[in-house]
Each structure stands twice: as structure tokens, then as C-alpha cells.
């Protein structure tokens, strides 16, 4: 009786596995993603994936770092707020292009080598903005939290124009109960997510400017 031919396993490097994993993640989402499905996609045993990344979390971190690696260095000739905004804009573009994989970036304090290079730019911008070394950690974490929150709001459908159905529902409320809501909500019809993103990041940067300026101003003696 003839033996069945052995299953051939492709030998892939880490970069190929990461790119394949990102593609799969965007197709099936976090709930449908698994090492088994990735192995089937690339034609290798799931254990081969573990050999490269040690664990599923290791793979997810590598996927997040792959996205981070696509962020380009910003022009150092720009002002520090312009540099921060340019980095923020690139993060938003990454998220809109890879919404499923972008979720993984928030699971890790840093994603790896690519993240260190971006963080160096953020730290430098904050330092150039007048923040002290003691203030930079909180400012950096807060900046990322605000940035990711805006992006998540857009991906999740919070930042969007109001619908006709929502406006009609508002019309059922007595005008005297919600006068400001009745006045402002129709303006949401023309709301643009990019406009919201730009405005809020500028406000965050204005807050950092004000904080740095306050710290640099000597206290007035009473």
C-alpha cells in the first residue's frame, strides 16, 4: 500500500509571516484571527509561527510594530507642534488603512524597534516645547491616549455626521427642555471626522504650549 505523500511546509521568514498576519487580521478581525488560520494561509504549521514569535502575543506585537514602522520621520525643521501633528496624522492614516491591526497597537506600552524611533521624535518635540524631563512621561502617555481616543472614536462611528433619523428623534423633544441641543445638533450634519481630528489635536497642543509657558513664568512674590 502506497504511503500518502508528506505535507510540504513552506519556510517563511518573520517579515513574510508578519505581512501575511496583518492581511489576515484585516480580513477576519481579532475574533477570527488565530495561529491555525495563519498557518493555513501561508502553508506552514502553527508551531513554525511560534518558533519565530514565541507566543500569539509576540506575533501581535510584531504586527503592531510593522504598522509603526510605516510612520515616516518628520522634518526636524518644523515647529514642535507641527511635528507632533504630522506624527498624529500618520497614525490616523495607518488606523484608517488597517483598522483591525491598529487595535493591537494599543495592547502594548511599546511595540518594538520601530516604536522606539517614533517615541524619540515625540520626546524630542515635547522637550523642544518646553516640558521638563519629569513632565514628559505623563505628557507623552496623555498625548497618545488622546490620539488613540480620537482615532477609536472615528473607527467606531462616534465621530460622524448626524443622521436624518437622529434629527427626527430630536424633534420629538420639547424645545424648552433642550434648547441648546435643538440649536446645535443640526450643525452635526456637516461634521467631518478629519476636521474634528485636526481641531482636537491642535487644542491638545495649545494646552501643552500653555502648560510649558506657565512653568517657565516665574512665580510672582506676594
Describe the structure.
The protein is 67% helix and 0% strand. It has 222 residues and is mainly alpha-helical. The chain folds into two domains: 10-54, Arc Repressor Mutant, subunit A (Orthogonal Bundle); 55-215, Tetracycline Repressor, domain 2 (Orthogonal Bundle), CATH 1.10.357. Helix 1 (14-32) crosses helix 2. Residues 1-8 have low confidence and may be disordered.
The number of distinct β-strands equals: 0
Note the beta-strand portion.
Answer: under 5%
Mean pLDDT: 91
CATH architecture grouping of the largest domain? Orthogonal Bundle
Distance between the termini: 100 Å
Element-level helix/strand string: HHHHHHHHHHH
Instruction: Indicate the structural class.
Output: mainly alpha
Q: Which superfamily, in CATH terms, is the homologous superfamily of the largest domain?
A: Tetracycline Repressor, domain 2
Q: What is the gyration radius calculated from CA atoms?
A: 23 Å
Low-pLDDT runs:
1-8
Number of domains: 2
- CATH structural class of the largest domain: Mainly Alpha
User: What's the number of helices?
Assistant: 11
CATH topology of the largest domain: Tetracycline Repressor, domain 2
Largest sheet: none
